[in-house]
Design brief:
Blueprint: E1 6-10, H1 17-28, E2 31-34, H2 35-43, H3 47-73, E3 77-80, H4 91-98, E4 100-105, H5 108-117, H6 131-149, E5 154-157, H7 163-175
Parallel strand pairs: 1-3, 1-4, 2-3, 4-5
Helix pairs in contact: 2-3, 3-4, 5-6
Length: about 180
């Protein structure tokens, strides 16, 4: 019996994991799952509230718990992780063991543009920061997280990644 395909997207905040994941899931006729939304639904608290009330350590534990649950209970899905998900509690090892991991490698300039013009207010790690501070924060995050992202089975680079390109990379991955 074939195991249903599980695809997990990793990358920096603003790299397009949720936006791109929804498109990919639709094209594959898969379920789309956003890990942050799962955490918020299951705990009844926003990510911002969990960070504020319980701290990052508790959030990372919840994130690992729900990641493991999604990977074990859901079949045939595309999962968008939070930007830090692969970097804690051996999550990248779990992701690679249970799924096809894909790193969306988008330039920091494009990420800054997306964050600045889109939902900056919804991202607590950038709240209250000016443009220079946001750019510095992004550079630091990238330096801290790059080694985890690079462990992904498939790496897609560029500021305009398409679902067609990803489908081609997935097919190539399975042929090899």
């Amino acid at each position: 019996m074939r195991t249903p395909l599980k695809i997990v997207l990793v990358g920096m905040p603003g790299s397009g994991k949720s936006t791109f994941g929804k498109k990919l899931a639709k094209q594959l006729s898969f379920v789309f799952v956003d890990l942050d939304q799962v955490i918020e639904k299951e705990t009844g608290k926003s990510i911002e509230k969990i960070f504020a009330e319980e701290g990052e350590g508790k959030f990372r534990d919840l994130e690992s718990f729900y990641l493991e649950r999604c990977l074990s209970e859901i079949e045939g899905f595309v999962l968008a992780t939070g930007g830090g998900t692969p970097c804690f509690n051996d999550n990248m090892d779990l992701i690679n063991k249970e799924s096809v991991s894909i790193f969306l490698d988008v330039s920091l300039n494009e990420i800054f543009h997306r964050l600045h013009s889109d939902h900056l207010g919804k991202r607590p790690m950038f709240a209250g920061l000016d443009e220079g501070e946001i750019i510095l924060k992004l550079k630091n995050l990238e330096a801290e997280r790059e080694s985890y992202y690079q462990q992904a089975k498939i790496k897609l680079s560029g500021d305009n990644i398409s679902t067609e390109h990803l489908m081609s990379e997935i097919l190539t991955y399975f042929r090899n």
